């Protein structure tokens, strides 16, 4: 397991909210704290540029976006 982390000078309201949240989730305040940190600091995996492009919806064909000369 990783190292210990000590957080000092936490407002009483924050500690109370942490304990209430822990109780609601059926875990200790320490386990709740770890879960909050894990969720806050975890990042979704990076997607490649190709994956981002592939996830975009199909909005038409090239002809749909062709420029038309002004009819002036």
From TrEMBL:
One of its GO terms (biological process) is regulation of DNA-templated transcription. It comes from the Bacteria. Residues 4-41 form the Antitoxin FitA-like ribbon-helix-helix domain. This is Antitoxin FitA-like ribbon-helix-helix domain-containing protein. The lineage of its organism: Bacteria, Pseudomonadati, Pseudomonadota, Gammaproteobacteria, Chromatiales.
